[in-house]
Amino acid sequence: MSRRDQIRMTEDEVRDYLAGQKVINVASIGPNGRPHLAPLWYYPHENGVATWTYRTSQKAKNLYRLPQATVLVEDGDSYERLRGVSFEADVEIVEDTAEVTQMGIALMQRYAGAKPGDPVPDELATFIGGQAPKRIGLILRPTKTASWDHTKLGGTY
Questions:
Q1: FRET pair for 141, CA 20 to 30 Å: which of 15, 40, 75, 103?
Q2: Is 129 exposed, middle or buried (0-12, 13-18, 19+ CB in 10 A)?
Q3: d(C-alpha 154, C-alpha 136), whole Å
Q4: In 11-96, at which residue ranges do the beta strands (DSSP E only) sit?
């Protein structure tokens, strides 16, 4: 077995890894043809992730023009602890304000430590309701995935 095969995560491990992390780095293609990289909070969605962004942001403009992105999630502070997932994704842009509101609530509840289905505090619903018309939702569906978990090597290279 190659070292690459040894560190590759299974689909379940990728899903669990994405559920445990907090920030994705999203690369879209800017108007000059160069990658535009932006960190975003996210939540797991289907086999990929979902998030939101300001409708007028550069990443939104890029994704309207070309709804494709590359996503990176990684952690580890030394070589033997490196773990990560990178995937190319087709991006669905969600413009419906009610859907974007629900996406914003899911996102903010995740970062507040709430569980899906927990009651939404009135203050949060009001805040998200005010933000949603200025934003779009992004659903990033993987088309090609690479993963690595160097902890599987037991500290050897």
A1: 75
A2: middle
A3: 43
A4: 23-29, 35-41, 43-45, 48-54, 68-75, 83-94
Give the per-residue pLDDT at 77.
Answer: 92
The two tokens of residue 68 are 């494709």
pLDDT at residue number 112: 86
Which segments in the chain show pLDDT lower than 70?
A: 1, 157
pLDDT of residue 157: 64
Q: What is the largest CA-CA distance in the chain?
A: 54
Contact, 140 vs 89, CB < 8 A? yes
Looking at the chain, how many residues does it have?
A: 157
C-beta atoms surrounding 81 within 10 Å: 12
> SS3 letters for 80-127?
HHCEEEEEEEEEEEECCHHHHHHHHHHHHHHHHCCCCCCCCCHHHHHH
pLDDT for 74 equals 97
The pLDDT value given to residue 55:
97
> Measured between alpha carbons, how far apart are the two ends of the chain, in Å?
14
